[in-house]
Amino acid sequence: MTGRLTEFASHTEPSAGSADFRALELRLVESYSKVAKQYRRDDALEVNSENHRRLGGNLKRLSGSFGRDIQALDAGCGTGRYFHCLKNVHKLVGVDISSEMLQAATDPISKHEISVSDIQLLQDNIYTVVLPNGSFDLVYSLGMFGHGAPLTLEVCRKFYDLLCPGGRLYFNVLETPKSRPLARTKEWLKKSAYPLLPQGVRRKLEARASVLPCFTMTLPRLEELMNASGFSDFALSINVCRTPLWQGIHLECMATKFGRR
Ligand SMILES: C[S@@+](CC[C@H](N)C(=O)[O-])C[C@H]1O[C@@H](n2cnc3c(N)ncnc32)[C@H](O)[C@@H]1O
What is the pTM of this model? Predict the structure, then answer.
């Protein structure tokens, strides 16, 4: 994450199509349009971090494990920070809600190392974008869930549907902070009181804060979501992330869609 984009309190998820959903879309577009150029400059710092090496290494192993040409989806691709980590990918679809982030992704970091032959960048919302089911061998999403983007059962099911049998999923999501009791109580209070406020008051508060709401996740909840989403084979882990740009805890998920292609 670049800059202070996130308001750190877990919020309830707006349902697709609602006024809150539309308002969140606008805030995402506005927030990322402001930071896109800086985010792209920060790619140079981030690619040398241990965090990037670990995530990129996982992506390289996952994509390389197919041993044949594959199609991949990068959900919330941003500036294309992970494009250079992919192996075997002949077609990559990068979906992002921000046209400025996508513009930056046309000239991604380490572009001379990119082996993907066809990169299609699509400005759309990952919750509502329409893509052909069963058309991807690999779906990944790094750094998107949490900052203005809730991980929902619907989106997990969508990833399941988009994958072909034998396809792999890899994503991370911000963990709900649990170490500091005061932070936890504050977060609980905000989470319970916030949805009770009238919509107009919430909008005013959000506009004043001009930051993105934070949607965090606990490990048991993530397990529940994955169990309900169709994936029977998945592994979850907790990872402390320390980079020059951001520090926090991510939950990570690697899953395989059952079946043979
Ligand atoms: C923190 S950046 C991560 C970008 C990239 N994956 C990376 O690791 O550098 C999050 C990205 O997700 C995008 N994003 C957030 N919510 C989205 C949504 N609902 N649909 C599509 N893109 C979204 C933002 O525009 C932003 O580019």
Answer: 0.88
